[in-house]
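OP here, attaching both records as promised.
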Amino acid sequence: MARRGAKKDMKQHATKEIILELLREGGTLLISAIKAGQELRHLRVLRDPLPSWEAYYPSSVNRQLNRLWRKGYVDIRETTEGYVVTISDRGKTEVLRYDLNTMAIPAQTQWDGKWRMVIFDIPGSEETVRSAFRNHLKSLGFYQMQKSVYVYPYPCDEQIHYLREVYNIPHSVKIATISELENDEDLRKIFHL
């Protein structure tokens, strides 16, 4: 028996992460809005490619869309049907940053005998980026051989390409697959190979 006064389908508050992810999945959102200076007021979803928006309180979607718009994470343009909301390039980069927290290198059952080496030369003027990149390599399980040289025994090209994209350092990071590495006994012990 249901509790008296309990709502069957309780709505949730929309967060920045949720809205950006929904826009990334669905592409665009058509809304009705009144533009009042630097803010959109009275947002109402007119047409939505995904039914997911109905799970959230309209007021929280309104609030978050305005914040995202002011920060440049979404683009809102006026059309004859209403306003179209799309995720901007800056918003796409922000979504990529969320994925960093869940990124992992899939476990391998058997080592193929090759080492993956990541070599980077990120300028000192970008110390924050360099430090974040280095920390992500460590969190993925890489071993630091030298200050800007890390090694890992399993395929990881996708993850490194992803990190380069997120940190916008495509030319500062190189990946090498090495079939023979001199004196690698210590590395084999570290990685239990």
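Record two, same layout:
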Amino acid sequence: MPEYDGLVEPKSAPPALAALTVLLAAATLLAVGILVARGWLDRPQPVQIVQLPLDTSMKVAVRGAVQTPGVYTLRFGDRVDDAIRAAGGLTSDADERAINPAARIADEQEIWVPRRGEPTAISVSPPSAAATAGRVNLNTATVSQLVALPGIADLTANRIIESPERVGPFRRVEELRERGIMNERNFDLVKDRVSAP
């Protein structure tokens, strides 16, 4: 018989409690494993962005006092100066003060370079001026022209100006919404005051 030293001899846990402890430990390990696996599977997979070539070319007619008048293919974002260079430059009798070489050009635009003494009112005019009279062209607008419109602040104006350089020229006014530049409410305020070729 073992000697009793005054301490209580430890009792072993009942088999049901031991089984429950093992079961809880196994369930905890299983849950942790599922969470780790699920977390691994839910991680975003790398996405490869493929940039498709955009047609950023446009046709512009250059007429008047240039070396070679005609229709030229230019890139979006080009200026009157680029169109004149494409036409071989100015002639010696061109009235340089009548044109703004820094003005942006638009698709289907006609650039008229007057000779000295000719009227200058038609130096740069879009082809559909009658249809868009009083409207701001989204492809050639300046920040100051855009912020003068209802619903357009500096940030939106800059996004409008940068969008054609990134995505390509506006072809329709509705692209302000489609490109995520304007919300519906502001678009409704401005849609009848802007144009796109």
